[in-house]
Write a structure and sequence with these properties.
With 676 residues, this protein is of the alpha+beta class. It contains 24 helices and 18 strands. The chain is globular.
């Protein structure tokens, strides 16, 4: 029976025609396992996952393997992007048992959903010390049949161990100067001064840490923080992890030098990095940062925007190499000969030098990932622009990577914030319009009458999975950015609806901590709760940030209190593991700075004097500053209430905790007030 055919997840649909009798996650699958007295085989992945595709081709498309799975297991397929709660709970078990994790994740469960055997990718034949997938299946079946008591004991112990795990909250107080200084020192120790970034291979773009470094520099003037952010951004922008033709970033670099990426492109990475580079430009005026922010924004709109106005989740790493084989990176890499075919000998020689292409190749089979190893001023800008245009046009004729068209509420929230701010900074109203389109889709399709948010949609059809904490928090973050950029108070109102749900359904009242799932969500073997940032801000730190910004806009004390209590975990973890709580540290910087509240009072947002003050406010580097623009009479922004024009002229009020400096009508004075 094809149970996956009606799903909204492209990943599940990729497996709909497998000979494996897949079930979606749900009580029916576990009831079937109880009825048949067989274990559940849980397979978790996502559509852009290279090794997920490999295991699917090797094992799940194999008739003999599928027949064995169908006879001895109930097989459940889960898209980790649709069900991050399921993924988080069982990944925690995998990492605790094996010391590592990844996707595809393969977990064997009892019919009560208790895990007892774990792994990730298993090959079709035993190799490199790994058993074959068939050996694993046979071993699990043997244990289930002949050693059931042992299986039950293992499963029970794992569940008890997971239930007994506690998070060190650090108390209900937000971190202060000592903790943030200690976090900066910790990052300095882990920093790679030769290559930028932190740690060794594989190397992930540290977008949230960059935000912390920029905010710390803005608040304290620490040049070392700014230097780490600048150098890391430049190394990434010049490396192979950045698409030198079409813009946008790949998921990570497999090496320490940012040369060879894992080629999948994720919406959340590009949204976060677009915003980080825009903020770097705001702080430094860097031309490179400006270019990368705009190219990344254009990439998202051009290649990830859906017909409904939202943004798709990802582009695959693999694509057809022209021979019918799906090969990682085939769409992006070049050989010298391919460059000559497109450009001719003279321009190809220039392109080889400019993009760092070699005869031996920097990737596989003599192909190279395009980089920018030398400074741009050494080359003729006009010729380089022509070369880029011709190569991009030829690349567009190659078979394109697959696209995961699923709309994830949280990641669209991140994209809304990035596009709104980038559009405002660089006078690109089309980018702001794209942000508005995605926000409208979330409100129109993902929010129900009680403002509860659905996690996903596809092709205009909303998914069945409830939103998790990051969906509420990141969507609120996007709405708050839109409110500041557009002066439309309705977005502040929608953010408030979402954050009221956070307070009511996600907060642990005793500790002030936050759960990843709502109090009324489906019960798993453990209620997931993780404050550390991974590929995107954790729901915990994202919620703290949105709550803090909303409180600054409205004066809502419960939201401010909840934000500060949630930041207690940053006080505990920031000095110890700063790389893994970067957004939490960035929010803590905003909290320590105020954050500042900027009210721009003017007769209309298109009035030149009002626009000048508004733009100056948006370009201020004060950490986490919120901006409201409009008339006091509108009632859309509490910050504007009872704040009149100054001698008939538009005026700016800069406040902290609703205590304001003398208002100014001068944009330069406002800029100075928002520097430090």
């Amino acid at each position: 029976m094809n149970r996956l055919a009606g799903m909204t997840s492209p990943y599940l649909l990729q497996h709909a025609d497998n000979p494996v009798d897949w079930w979606p996650w749900g009580p029916e699958a576990f009831e079937e396992a109880k009825r048949r007295d067989v274990p559940v085989l849980l397979s978790v992945g996502y559509s852009a996952c290279h090794w997920c595709h490999v295991m699917a081709h090797e094992s799940f498309e194999d008739d003999d393997t599928a027949a064995y799975m169908n006879e001895h297991f109930v097989s459940v397929k889960v898209d980790r992007e649709e069900r991050p709660d399921v993924d988080a709970v069982y990944m925690e078990a995998v990492q605790a048992a094996t010391g590592q994790g990844g996707w595809p994740m393969t977990v064997f469960l009892t019919p009560d959903a208790e895990p007892f055997y774990f792994g990730t990718y298993f090959p079709p034949e035993a190799r490199h010390g790994m058993p074959s997938f068939r050996q694993v299946l046979e071993g699990v079946r043997g244990a289930w049949t002949d050693r059931r008591d042992e299986v039950a004991d293992v499963a029970g112990k794992i569940v008890r161990d997971l239930a007994g795990r506690e998070i060190s909250y650090g108390g209900p107080e937000a971190p202060g100067e000592p903790e943030l200084a200690a976090a900066l020192l910790g990052l300095t120790r882990e920093y790679d001064p030769q290559r930028g970034g932190f740690g060794g291979a594989p190397k992930f773009p540290p977008s949230m840490v960059i935000e912390f470094l920029l905010r710390h520099h803005a608040r304290t003037g620490a040049e070392g923080a700014l230097q780490m952010a600048q150098d890391t951004c430049e190394r990434m922008a010049r490396g192979g992890i950045y698409d030198q033709l079409g813009g946008g970033f790949a998921r990570y670099s497999v090496d320490r030098d940012w040369v060879v990426p894992h080629f999948e492109k994720m919406l959340y990475d590009n949204a976060l990095l677009c915003r980080a580079y825009a903020h770097l430009w705001r702080a430094t005026g860097s031309g490179l940062a400006r270019r990368v922010a705009l190219e990344t924004a254009d990439f998202m709109v051009r290649e990830l925007r859906t017909n409904e106005g939202g943004f798709a989740s990802a582009l695959d790493a693999d694509s057809d190499d022209g021979t019918g084989r799906h090969v990682e990176g085939a769409y992006y890499v070049w050989t010298p000969e391919q460059l000559r075919e497109v450009l001719g000998d003279e321009d190809a020689d220039l392109a080889v030098r400019y993009f760092g292409v070699t005869e031996d190749g920097t990737f596989e089979h003599g192909s190279s990932v395009l980089q920018l190893p030398q400074q741009d001023e050494l080359f003729d800008a006009g010729r380089i622009a022509s070369i880029r245009e011709r190569l991009l046009r030829r690349r567009a004729a190659r078979p394109e990577p697959g696209r995961d068209d699923k709309i994830v509420a949280a990641w669209n929230g991140l994209a809304i914030a990035a596009l709104a701010e980038t559009g405002a900074y660089f006078d690109r109203p089309d980018l702001v319009e794209a942000a508005l389109g995605a926000a409208d889709l979330l409100v129109r399709l993902h929010l129900d009458e009680q403002a509860r948010i659905a996690r996903t949609s596809k092709d205009g059809q909303v998914g069945a999975n409830a939103g998790v904490l990051e969906d509420y928090a990141d969507a609120a973050e996007g709405f708050l950015a839109l409110a500041s950029v557009t002066g439309e108070g309705v977005w502040l109102e929608f953010a408030g609806f979402l954050l009221d749900h956070v307070l009511a359904r996600f907060v642990d009242e005793e500790s002030g901590g936050l759960y990843d799932t709502a109090a009324d969500a489906e019960r798993l073997i453990r209620r997931p709760q993780d404050p550390t940032d991974n590929a995107a801000p954790s729901g915990w730190s994202a919620a703290a940030g949105a709550l803090l910004s909303y409180a600054a806009q409205t004066g809502a004390e419960p939201h401010r209190t909840a934000a500060e209590r949630a930041l207690g975990v940053v006080k505990a973890l920031g000095p110890r593991v700063p790389r893994f709580i970067g957004w939490g540290l960035a929010v803590a910087e905003a909290n320590l700075d105020g954050p500042r509240e900027v009210a721009i009072v003017g007769p209309a947002t298109d009035d030149p004097a009002t626009k000048a003050l508004h733009r100056t406010a948006l370009l201020g580097t004060a950490p986490g500053a919120v901006v409201a623009v409009g008339t006091p009479e509108s009632g859309e922004f509490p910050l504007l209430a009872d704040r009149p024009l100054r001698e008939g002229q538009p005026a700016a009020y800069v406040c902290r905790n609703f205590t304001c400096d003398t208002p100014t009508t001068d944009a330069e004075q406002l800029r100075t007030a928002l520097i430090r």
